[in-house]
Structures are given as structure tokens and as C-alpha cells.
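pinned: reference chain
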Amino acid sequence: MNLKEYIDWTKTINDYKTAPTVANTSAWGFKKLKKVNVPDIKIKNATEGDEGYWSVRNNELNSWAKEIWSDLTFLDTKIQIQKPGQVCHPHLDFLGYYLEDVCMAHPGLLKLKHSLDAPALDIWRMFIAVEDQVLGQRFVINDKDWAWKKGDCMRLNNWQALHWTTNTSNKMRTIIKVTGVKF
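pinned: its C-alpha cells
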């Protein structure tokens, strides 16, 4: 299928029901990247989503990400706050909404051949730990736990790696998610 057909397909599926049927749990799940300096985060106006965490976006955070990942374009930076007791169920990040925005700026991309095992674009989705992990906080990718300390950064294989999070601790888990395209 081409990228336009893929984007249209993502609008017809339920991520949590479809992901387990198309994930490749033998593919690489995540790669640890260099440690980064975490900005002083001021969380204001976080909104609760239906995916198992609260989130907020702001321009300061996006500016911070642009300094670190200057080789990526179409940066989207988001703070995710998972409160005690919240769960984000196993899923893939299909990124239909994100790809639609990228393709609005570059319509020629819509014709590119795309699949989950051979993506049309080199999308980087990274997670950066804002604080040290505490007992009860989990981020699991293809059945492997990511253990983190403040500033740890990993790149997720969002197209193939089934991933989920849970927080059974008594402390909020705050993480930064950065998405960008490498042309």
C-alpha cells in the first residue's frame, strides 16, 4: 500500500485490537540512545487521555528537542504523566495522525510505498526519562522491560514492537516522548 492508503487504514482500526495481530515481537523493540539533560519541566494544563496517561505539549519542550535532535524534522514533543493505577495497554504507534500532518506539508510523500515492516519514512520515536524509575513503574517493549534513570533515552520501534506501560507505584511517572522524521 502507499502512504495515503496506510493513513486511511489507520483511521479504520482500533489500535489496541489491531496491534497484537500485526506486531512483530521478534523485531528489535528499542535501542538505548545517549543520555540527555532533562529540561526543568513545568506541567500545566495536562489533559487525561483514553490511552492510560495524562499529557501536555508546549513550545519550550519542542525547542529543547530541536536542540538535541537537530537532524529530525516535524518534531512533536509531549510530556506523558502516568498516575498511580493507570495502565496503557499493549499497542503499536501507527502514527496515522502524525503522518497525515507530515504529508500535508509534503503531499508527494503520499505516493510512497509503506508497510509496517518497510516504512516509507524514517520516523524516530524516542522516550526520555524525567525521573528515576521506581518499583511498580513499567515500560515493556516486546516483552522486555526498559529500566531507566533520569535522562535515559531510548528509541522505540513504533512500527513493529508491541509495547505497554503500567504504574502500580505510589508516584507519578513522567516521561517525554519525541517524534520526528529523518530525511
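why pinned: The first strand starts at residue 30 and ends at 33. The radius of gyration is 16 Å.
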